[in-house]
Amino acid sequence: MNKITLSSLIIIIVILLFHLFLFTALKSNKNSWITLEPMPIAKAGIEVAVVNGKIYVIDSGINYEYNPATDTWTTKTPMPTPRTRFGIAVVENKIYVIGGSTGGYTYTNVNEVYSPSTDTWETKTSMPTTRHAMDANVVDGKIYVIGGGQRLPHDDLDVNEVYDPETDTWTTKTPIPTEVWDYTSAVVDDKIYIIGGAVGLSLNQIYDTETDTWSTGASLPRGVDSAAAGATTGAMAPKRIYVIGGKQNLDAVNFNQVYNPEKDRWSIGTAMPTARYGHGVAVVNDTLYAIGGIEGWIGAPVSAANEQYTPFG
Question: For labeling, which of 78, 194, 210, 260 is most exposed (least CB within 10 Å)?
């Protein structure tokens, strides 16, 4: 009996130690960053999109596919109209690239769609308002393009235009209360969060797509423009919006500001290893990838960094 009791005790201790080790290992990975294979070239002002677990980095003259599973990059067909600072969105596994800057103070309203499965581009109905420095967000299969600008430094826009890929048509919705460009954004529960930007550095403007109305959330703790954001879904991490990087006083920062939409509350996560702005953030399986950007003050140096963040929870 004593031998059986001792043997059972040893087994229990081993199991407990194993679970303690596993818990410690998993906990140590949360709210932490690792460095991955850099982008083939250094690039800033990029936009990113995710299709079937792969990240597409698109900018004037480039279209790279990054596979997180293999940590490898592949070159794809670039968009027909070279441009930067456009809106990007994914509907039905196709990537829509809308508006942007074609150089200097020249902007476009072109709307081109990329199919990763065929590596081909197609032109769709142009956006009504020519602009750049804005985001595109998808809710219920429709693409919302909000704010942006037409000429530096003062022509900020409040427009809210919605594209329906199914009908290839545009409609106009309620304008954003405060015009803003070079903001970042994310979608949680059919609401679009427009955060920061070159006008209201700390603003958190929330658009309800169901009611076509705007409200204001808790302000960004550290106001930034040219940041990037990603939202976790609640599947593998709690629903949160991560506002990563950006710039203050023309200098890159490595902030990781975390917003809880349910509680309208901000917290601070582990800082990104490489301070930068004008980068892209993509989310795959509730893990965030920060790619490219500018690491320094007033445009230099340009970065090829690819850093992965495992979030809270």
Answer: 210
Q: What is the pTM of this model?
A: 0.90
- DSSP string for the chain: -HHHHHHHHHHHHHHHHHHHHHHHHHHHHTTEEEE-PPPSS--SS-EEEEETTEEEEEETTEEEEEETTTTEEEE-PPPSS--BS-EEEEETTEEEEEEEEEETTEEEEEEEEEETTTTEEEEEPPPSS--BS-EEEEETTEEEEE--EEETTTEE---EEEEETTTTEEEE-PPPSS---S-EEEEETTEEEEE--SS-TT-EEEEETTTTEEEE-PPPSS--BS-EEEEE-SSSS-SEEEEE--EETTEE---EEEEETTTTEEEE-PPPSS--BS-EEEEETTEEEEE--B-SBSS-SB---EEEEE---
The CA distance from 24 to 253, in Å, is 30
pLDDT tens track for 46-63: 999 999 999 999 999 999
Question: What does the pLDDT look like over 137-148, one tens digit per residue?
Answer: 999 999 999 999
Domains in the chain (CATH in brackets) are 31-310 (2.120.10.80)
